Amino acid sequence: MSEQQGPVPKRAYQKAKRAEDEQRTRGRIVDAAEHLHGSLGPARTTVSAVADCAGVTRATVYRHFADEEALFLACSREWLSRQQLPDPSAWGLIDDPAERLRTGLMDIYGFYRRGAQMMTLIHRDVEAVPAVVVAGRRSREQEWLHALLRPLPGHRRKLVRAAVAHATSFTTWQSLCGAHGLSDRSAVELVVGMVERAAQR
């Protein structure tokens, strides 16, 4: 017969509750930083503002995060975890270069549209963004670029690479769809035409 378990010792219960409270506090701090990055921008987000928004003290913020870079990394990971990121592996299943380009760009432009507010401020305040976050973004963009370039005729030529790099850039989407009001599909058709002409030269 198995022994019947007794009640959880008070000290163990208090320790577990304290850990849960700390995790909730950490979550509030990350949420506050994300909110401020997406509304004011990184350059205008201070630790004091994060603390006020989260309802904690500056000391509490620093107890959870050694410095602003650590907080920014946690915020970035949390935001990215909720995004539907472009999937280059799915594009690789498409043999036709032009169709792969259209599909990939629609995927990328959808991501840009959904995250437009945050990404606009991140790009504006890039000098305030930790280098590791910028490097991560550029690495993803290079992966997209290579996946779309690989099957294109003349993909090794500088003109073709420049055309695809321009097509996949957030600032290109921002100009065509944000400033000029094009739909994602219209913008994609426009830049696909540009890339195809570059590949034919």
Automatic annotation (TrEMBL):
Residues 46-65 bind DNA. The keyword DNA-binding applies. Residues 17-26 have a biased composition (Basic and acidic residues). SUPFAM superfamilies: Homeodomain-like. Residues 1-26 are annotated as: Disordered. InterPro entries: Homeodomain-like_sf (IPR009057), HTH-type_TetR-like_transc_reg (IPR050109), HTH_TetR (IPR001647). Keywords: DNA-binding, Transcription, Transcription regulation. The keyword Transcription regulation applies. Pfam families: TetR_N (PF00440). Residues 23-83 form the HTH tetR-type domain. This is TetR/AcrR family transcriptional regulator. It comes from Nocardioides astragali.
